[in-house]
Each structure stands twice: as structure tokens, then as C-alpha cells.
Amino acid sequence: TEIYTLSLHDALPIYLLALKASAVVLLRMGNVEEGRIRLAKVVELDPQDRLGAAALMLIPGVGEEAPALHA
User: 48-67 burial by CB neighbour count: b if 16+ within 10 A, else e?
Assistant: First the structure.
């Protein structure tokens, strides 16, 4: 049995994908604040936005509070 180790360079994309996926799941479940926190961390660690987390933060109600609807 061989044991493989990942360098930080190899592990970071895997971590970021898992973090983004968990953020999306939280958002879909209605836990917007926790999803927003996780997306913000992905944006921080992926400044080139290769994973598109910054784009998700632009969705109303995700990156900032959605504007109130006036009846």
C-alpha cells in the first residue's frame, strides 16, 4: 500500500471546490449567512475567480441582502 501526500499546491483546488460546493448546498437549504461566509473564503483564496465564487456572490440575496419588495 502506498501513501500519497498532497502538496498545498495540489490540495488547495480540492479544498476550494469542496468549500464552494458546501456553500452552494447551504444557500439552497436557506442558510444564506453560512453560505455567504464560505463563498467569501473561496473568493479570498481564489482571487482570479477560476471557480466562479465571485459571480455567485453577485446573486441578489447572496452577496448582500436582497432589496425589500414594496407592495
Answer: eeebebbebbeeeebbeeee
Contact 27, 62 (CB under 8 A): yes
Predicted model pTM: 0.76
Distance CA 1, CA 8 (A): 23
Asked if residue 55 lies in contact with residue 49, where contact means CB atoms within 8 angstroms, the answer is yes
Share of the chain above pLDDT 70, in %: 89
Distance, CA of 37 to CA of 7 (rounded, Å): 25
